[in-house]
Write a structure and sequence with these properties.
By secondary structure, the protein is of the alpha/beta class. The chain is 48% helix and 12% strand. An 8-stranded mixed β-sheet has the order 3-4-2-5-6-1-7-14, sandwiched between helices. GO terms for molecular function: ATP binding; catalytic activity, acting on DNA; helicase activity; hydrolase activity; nucleic acid binding.
Length: 513
């Protein structure tokens, strides 16, 4: 089968891409392919064939920057005019979308916009012949992909193409994705496959363990002591004697106790605020363990200033505990005096070393929290003449921290590509799919317990040459637990994929159906 004429002379396809393309035309397909190995090229080939046959294509991606990126690449590859190819985000006027739903041959959109327009009647999903779901592992629960696929399948349209680099370590979740998207075949191509291996660049992964400064360690010790004191206030309650003391278990228990309290056991209403306070104090401990004093203090201060009645009850409970008020004062003092943050120092050293080796290097530092990204960006720029760091966050605002507009995000990514900035300090918005091919090193400011997010973070490097990944861990913290949790989940994901019923090994194609 030849490459679609719309793409001939525009792309240089690889053998495994052609193999997958042929299979994806036959039935609804989920492609599992490592980051940076050309899932979008495969999608472009399938889309081109559908367009050549007179069909229409709807291509969806979960974030606005990713929608913009796919729109640019697909419209150029397929040679479509602005009239023929449109992109939709929440910033595109409803009236403009209504017209483009009728006229455009190819639409690239966030799923939220598509779902809303289907509900309002502005979008007729039955007019499309192909739906493409990028980052398809999201198609679970109430995510918009699920309702969109349901509408498409009810209309008996013919083709679904779903793509992900990381389907997840939970077999049930993979099965849920398949059901929700109407997937008939899953094609898995791994880095060790003979037709893929020549295109895979090595990624060197190193964990770096750092110690909290002595004053921060003492505060962390005090926080844990207060946490244990808080637990003792309700641990002997018969309703809680067998409940695990962790955030997930306590959140479930709170819902259970609320129902029992409403059904007559009103004494439980006095216990619930203590469970809520435990969860919130545990967040503060985690921030202290993985981010340092600044983030922990900011979080506790946000509790102090909240007008939410539930939060006010938490604050009252915390201040009733011996040592908590002094803890808050000590933590504030440490932050004002500018206690050193070893993770920031290590990140600075790693960035400077890489830039010294190669002044044209590009580096991404991933942080989980926006406040950390702000503080770290400022720290890197203030302490190094060689580093030109820029912050990259999502579009939604968090209190006084305003999000970035779509235009600001696009400008930052382009300037990072061009070398105006050489370090991108990013939150999770940069984990999925953004085309930054020349990144030489990725730094995890903290590990994440999700195998999907770990794979996506690593996938930002090693695309065109050997890449490096550095993972920073605070000694004696839950950082290490999160790191090993993600490793276990990745291994389980591989076992699930390789050991699934229906796997067939073929020199050119791995099929898990």
């Amino acid at each position: 089968m030849l490459i679609p004429s719309l793409l001939q002379g525009k792309i240089e396809v690889r053998e495994y891409q052609v193999n997958v393309f042929r299979e994806a035309l036959r039935q609804n397909t989920l492609i599992v392919l490592p980051t940076g190995l050309g899932k979008t090229v495969i999608a472009a080939m399938v889309a081109a064939r559908v367009l050549e046959e007179g069909g229409r294509v709807l291509f969806m991606a979960p974030t606005r920057p990713l929608v913009q990126q796919h729109y640019r690449s697909l419209s150029q590859l397929l040679g479509l005019s602005e009239r023929e190819c449109s992109y939709f985000t929440g910033e595109v006027d409803t009236g403009d979308r209504r017209e483009r739903w009728v006229l455009s041959r190819l639409i690239v959109s966030t799923p939220q916009v598509v779902a809303n327009d289907i509900r309002s009647g502005d979008a007729d999903i039955s007019r499309f012949s192909l739906l493409v779901f990028d980052e398809a592992h999201r198609a679970v629960g109430n995510y918009a992909y699920v309702s969109i696929a349901s509408s498409f399948l009810e209309a008996r349209r013919r083709l679904v193409l779903a793509m992900t680099a990381s389907p997840g370590g939970d077999r049930e979740k993979v099965e849920e994705v398949k059901r929700n998207l109407g997937i008939e075949r899953v094609i898995i191509k791994g880095e060790s496959d003979p037709d893929v291996a020549p295109y895979v660049k090595e990624i060197e992964v190193e964990t770096i363990t750092v110690a909290l400064p002595s004053r921060a360690r003492q505060i962390l010790y005090d926080m844990r002591s207060i946490y244990n004191d808080l637990i003792s206030k309700y641990r002997d309650n018969p309703e809680l004697s067998k409940t695990a003391i962790n955030r997930k278990a306590l959140a479930v228990k709170i819902q259970e106790l609320v129902e029992k309290a409403r059904s007559g056991n009103r004494a439980l209403f006095k216990v619930i605020p203590y469970l809520t306070a435990t969860i919130r104090l545990d967040y503060a401990i985690e921030y202290m363990e993985s981010q340092g004093p600044e983030i922990a203090y900011e979080y506790l201060q946000s509790l102090e200033g909240s007008e939410d009645p539930s939060v006010q009850r938490t604050v009252k409970i915390l201040h009733s505990l011996p040592g908590y008020t002094d803890l808050l004062l000590n933590l504030g003092r440490v932050c004002r005096e500018g206690v050193e943050n070893p993770k920031m120092e290590v990140a600075l050293r790693l960035c400077e070393q890489k830039i010294a080796e190669n002044p044209a290097s590009r580096i991404i530092v991933f942080t989980h929290f926006r406040k950390t990204s702000e503080t770290l960006t400022r720290y890197l720029n203030e302490h190094s003449a060689a580093i030109r760091a820029v912050r990259f966050v999502g579009q939604s605002s968090r209190g006084s921290d305003e999000g970035m507009s779509q235009r600001e995000q696009e400008e930052i990514i382009q300037r990072f590509r061009d070398g105006d900035f050489n370090v991108l300090v990013a939150t999770s918005v940069a984990e999925e799919g953004l085309d930054i091919p020349s990144t030489d090193m990725v730094i995890f400011y903290e590990p994440v317990p999700s195998e999907i997010r770990s794979i996506q973070r690593r996938g930002r490097t090693g695309r065109t040459r050997t890449g490096q990944v550095k993972i920073l861990l605070y000694e004696g913290s839950r950082d290490r637990g999160y790191y090993f949790s993600s490793l276990r989940k990745e291994r389980r994901m591989q076992r699930n994929m390789e050991g699934s019923v229906g796997v067939k090994r073929d020199p050119k194609l791995d099929d898990f159906s």
